[in-house]
């Protein structure tokens, strides 16, 4: 079974090897990376891995700012995607945690009875009070999340989707594929959630904006969960924030994204089942002198970027604001206030 993972990256150098090694453990056979505007060695490390046949690395083809959608449009025509039995579109901070069989993608597909698409629900992992970036597996460091049935007062959770080669594809979206327009009902794809149940109708047909990329999470994760480490350490979050927006000197910082994903109410270490094999795979990858050196360079550049950012008053204020931010998401706090519960 050929399974191709497709992703877009910018300044993710310290985290690349873990994500690639993890994906290989769960059955991914090929990787297609698109990168843009990297200054932390991400592109150099990807080029070295590509030279060894571990992945394919291309510059992002986007002409404007719509990097991900332009890359996905381009990816659909690449041989590594066209020849795949399944395509997995995800980000480097997203790890597919499979609960059935031998904990691989083929086991998940078998449990879902081989549909044409499987959409797996997000579980956002909190920062957990970890300030300092450490060069250690992300899936080991961060173990706390929101109640996976409820996120920010909403019973629906976003998903990412595995897509089989015979899906009647119109185009790939970042969270789900869209099938060809005008299909008769009996031609629509067989599409399940992470428990092997047929996805809700409004999600299937993208009936409204609220159901284009999410549906209720309760009962949808029996076979798999998508662990999303959107925050990581406070150090790494500052660097991530700079990647997307470099000018904050004269306006207030909005901590909503952080607060929505920093609810530590739940502990989940189930993904640690992969750690022994992951650590072994990482050690093997880093034993290649060039790969090991490029990884170490990316780690150092990540720390150097953090230090440079913290020389700026705006980023010191941002750090202090995030340190002091309540762990209760804003929507939950507002709901409790309306109910008179403090």
Describe the structure concisely:
The protein has about 350 residues and is α/β, with parallel strands linked by helices.
Largest sheet: 10 strands, mixed
H/E element order: EHEHEHHEEHEHEEEEEHEEHHEHHHH
Radius of gyration: 20 Å
What's the helix count? Answer: 13
Segments where pLDDT lies below 50 for 5+ residues? 245-250
Portion in beta strands: 15-25%
Q: What integer is the average pLDDT?
A: 94
Distance between the termini: 53 Å
List how many beta strands DSSP finds: 14
Would you tell me the structural class of the helices and strands?
alpha/beta
Overall form: globular
Helical proportion? 25-40%
Structure description:
By secondary structure, the chain is of the alpha/beta class. 35% of the residues lie in helices and 19% in strands. The protein contains 13 helices and 14 strands. The strands form 3 sheets. Strands 1, 2, 3, 4, 5, 6, 8, 11, 12 and 13 form a 10-stranded mixed beta sheet that branches. The protein has a two-stranded antiparallel ribbon with strand order 7-14. The protein has a two-stranded antiparallel ribbon with strand order 9-10. Helix 1 packs across helix 10 and helix 8 crosses helix 11 (289-309). The chain starts with a strand and ends with a helix. Mean pLDDT is 94; it is low at 245-250.
């Amino acid at each position: 079974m050929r399974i191709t993972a497709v992703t877009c990256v910018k300044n993710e150098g310290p985290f690349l090897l873990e994500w690639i090694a993890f994906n290989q453990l769960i059955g991914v056979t090929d990787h297609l990376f698109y990168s843009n505007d990297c200054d932390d060695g991400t592109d150099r490390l990807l080029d070295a891995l590509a030279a060894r046949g571990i992945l394919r690395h291309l510059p992002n083809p986007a002409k404007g700012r719509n990097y991900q959608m332009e890359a996905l449009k381009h990816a659909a025509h690449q041989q590594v995607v066209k020849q795949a039995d399944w395509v997995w579109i995800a980000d480097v901070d997203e790890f597919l945690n499979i609960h059935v069989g031998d904990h691989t993608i083929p086991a998940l597909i078998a449990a879902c009875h081989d549909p044409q698409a499987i959409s797996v629900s997000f579980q956002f992992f909190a920062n957990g009070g970890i300030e300092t970036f450490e060069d250690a597996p992300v899936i080991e460091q961060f173990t706390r999340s929101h109640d996976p049935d409820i996120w920010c007062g909403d019973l629906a959770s976003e998903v990412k989707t595995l897509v089989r080669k015979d899906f009647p594809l119109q185009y790939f979206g970042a969270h789900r594929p869209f099938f060809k327009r005008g299909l008769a009902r009996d031609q629509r794809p067989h599409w399940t959630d992470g428990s092997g149940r047929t996805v809700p109708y409004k999600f299937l047909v993208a009936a409204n904006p609220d159901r284009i990329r999410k549906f209720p999470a309760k009962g949808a994760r029996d076979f798999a969960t998508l662990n999303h480490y959107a925050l990581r350490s406070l150090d790494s979050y500052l660097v991530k924030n700079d990647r997307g927006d470099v000018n904050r000197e004269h306006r207030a910082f909005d901590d909503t994204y952080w607060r929505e994903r920093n609810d530590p109410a739940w502990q989940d270490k189930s993904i640690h089942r992969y750690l022994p094999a992951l650590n072994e795979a990482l050690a093997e990858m880093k034993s290649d002198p060039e790969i090991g050196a490029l990884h170490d360079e990316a780690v150092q550049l990540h720390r150097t970027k953090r230090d440079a950012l913290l020389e700026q008053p705006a980023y010191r204020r941002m750090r202090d604001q995030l340190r002091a931010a309540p762990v209760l998401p804003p929507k939950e706090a507002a709901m409790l206030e309306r109910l008179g519960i403090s």
